[in-house]
Amino acid sequence: MYCKKRKCVLIFKRTWIIIIADFPKKRFFLNIYVLVNQLVFHQKRNAMKRYFYILFLFLPVYIVIAREYKLIQCNHIADNSKDCRKIGNCLSGMELSNDTLKVTVYIDNQDPDLNMYSDSFTIDHDTLCLNLNDTNALGYSYVFNKVKNKTDTFEIRTVHYQYRTDDRYNTRRMDYTFTGFSMIPKGIKFNRTNICDCPTLPLKFDILLNDTINMINANGLKQGAWIRFFDTGEIEEKKFFDKGKFTGGQLFDKKGNDLHVSYKSENMTISDVRE
């Protein structure tokens, strides 16, 4: 009987050690650890049953207190330093200080109105799920149910689809601040979709005579010289970009002569041609 009882106590002892390492409220669980050690040495069977009943009764309450996550602040900022149409929605960074977690994500902004959305979040195991809800797209309908003899409430969500006819893009930076975290989440979801870290290397580029051309940088933006060729291989046009912004261009004939055209935009609006 002594061996069976001690084996049971040791199993509980290992369990509480795991709990101590997992939850931030260490003082409470350290008291449990001390109690278990007392039970090991004194081997009081009745006391062990009574105290463990009490511990299991209050354990869920302390778990809730230890895991009380809160969203303190979320800022919606128009930020076109990244083109999320090319790189996708991505995580820019996470920082944990004490129990305060700061998260920054970039998303493709589907609507220019940054104030028509509400923010919420959930915790699914080790994954932080961020939710952005369109407040203007949510409505309710009330229908009387004759069978149940009561009024049923139906939630109506309106989905807006936007089609862009130009090459412009809108990116939104989301700065979240949470409290109650003891460790950085292992995964991030945005509107039920997993998101990865933002790229750090160029997405695309070509090499011409040891020079890099036609580059899309890590932010999804055109960078440097973009060159277009004739079918016969001669350079037809050069355009220059700095972090996605068009800075100028040149147009050539098949003999390599500069046609001295003037660009008003990336779409090559020609205002003057010199002969």
Report what the structure shows.
The chain is an alpha+beta fold and 275 residues long. It folds into three domains: 2-66, no CATH class; 70-197, no CATH class; 199-275, no CATH class. The protein is built from four helices and 16 strands. The protein has helices at residues 2-22, 26-42, 45-66, 84-87, and strands spanning 70-78, 90-97, 100-108, 117-124, 127-134, 138-145, 150-157, 171-179, 187-190, 193-194, 196-197, 204-208, 211-216, 222-229, 235-242, 245-251. It has a five-stranded mixed beta sheet with strand order 1-8-3-2-11. Strands 12-13-14-15-16 form a five-stranded antiparallel beta sheet, with no helix packed on it. A hairpin with a 2-residue loop joins strand 4 and strand 5. Helix 1 runs antiparallel to helix 2 and helix 2 (26-42) runs antiparallel to helix 3 (45-66). Mean pLDDT is 76; it is low at 1-26 and 60-66.
Keywords:
5-stranded antiparallel beta sheet, elongated, 16 strands, 3 domains
> For the CA atoms, what is the radius of gyration?
31 Å
Strand content: 35-45%
Q: Which stretches are poorly predicted, pLDDT < 50 over at least 5 residues?
A: 1-26, 60-66
Structural class: alpha+beta
How many domains, in number, for the residues? 3
Average pLDDT figure: 76
Order of helices and strands: HHHEHEEEEEEEEEEEEEEE
Shape summary: elongated
Strands across the major sheet, in which order?
1-8-3-2-11
The percent of residues in helical segments reads 10-25%
For the report, how would you describe the main beta sheet?
5 strands, mixed
Count of helices? Answer: 4
